[in-house]
Design a protein that fits this description.
With about 80 residues, the chain is an alpha+beta fold. Helices cover about 30% and strands about 20% of the residues.
Length: about 80
């Protein structure tokens, strides 16, 4: 799993990028997932998959949450 592979920096539109499809598969990342990207003091890039938060599909609960947010914002 920790096999070192070289990648070439390529141009993607007006940005620079690196294709790491196989490495993303290894961490379970899929299209649309959120990742955190950190550059360490040693100039290393650390990429982590963010956990998805599933909201309940309960209109009453969501209405209560919205009510609490509005009350908090009005303080």
């Amino acid at each position: 799993m920790n096999e070192l592979q070289e990648r070439k920096v390529i141009k993607i539109g007006t940005s620079l990028g690196v294709s790491i499809t196989e490495q993303l598969k290894l961490i379970g990342a899929e299209y649309g997932d959120m990742l955190s990207v950190e550059v360490t003091e040693n100039k290393e890039i650390v990429i982590k998959k963010q956990n998805k938060i599933e909201l309940p599909d309960d209109p009453k609960l969501l209405a209560e949450i919205q009510k609490m947010i509005e009350q908090h914002n009005n303080k």
